[in-house]
Amino acid sequence: MTIIDTFDDKSEAIISPQQMVKKVQGFPKVAVVAFGEKFITALCENYEAKRYDFLEACITIPIYKVNYKGKDIAVYCSTLGGPAAGGLLEEMIAKGCEKFVFFGSCGVLAHNIATNAFIIPTAAYRDEGTSYHYIAPNDYIGIPTADKLAAIFEELNIPYAKGKTWTTDALYRETVNNMEKRKQEGCIAVEMECASIMAVAQLRNVSVYQFLFAADSLAETVWDCRTLGNLENNTREKYLKIALEVAARI
């Protein structure tokens, strides 16, 4: 059996998210999901955010609630990788959340994408395992929220690039040959969660929006770390505000 044979829509899951967490009365319908604890620090320093609930993923992950432009929004920091991000998303859905805005860094595969530029994924190459348990096998998963997210970015006068992304489970096995294949197929970015969270969203019938910001570059055979893991505080605050603006509009 290959990984693409693991999709099973003929029988029920043995464990459900509802067995792990309980639905929370009045839970925010919209959530912002960051990758990196410093975004949560920025949230607490710049907004009247209150610790509201929590998730468990070997560590306790606080869920904060902030009222932004009249809308209650849940905010939490996801752990890296498709399996973890997808599992936490499942539990947020079980708590009562219905719409999600994910944002985080990515590597770029195109020379013309500048450091810190914004990318809106339109499809994700499924070089991971989680998505094959949620939707039927295919090389790519489409992202139905991409056009609406792009329209919001245009409302906000934020420049962006749209294109395919390469979701991989193996950070340290992004080989030259695989990179070249993905570039030939039109991928402009590489990250670790998009295909997984989009597959969870499709099975659970919720909406996931995701934008990326360009950090390191894998456009050449020699890696360029650029700004990976080294954002200025004001840049981090800017990205968080954009995510909240998107959340207020969906």
Q: How would you describe the overall organization of this protein?
A:
The protein has 250 residues and is α/β, with parallel strands linked by helices. It has a single domain, classed as Rossmann fold. Helices cover 30% and strands 30% of the residues. The chain contains 7 helices and 10 strands. It has helices at residues 17-20, 37-46, 82-95, 146-155, 176-184, 194-204, 233-249; strands at residues 30-34, 50-56, 60-68, 71-77, 99-108, 118-127, 140-142, 161-168, 187-191, 207-217. It has a 5-stranded mixed beta barrel with strand order 5-9-8-6-10, surrounded by 4 helices. The longest helix is centred in the C-terminal third of the chain and has 17 residues, at 233-249. The model has no long low-confidence stretch (mean pLDDT 94).
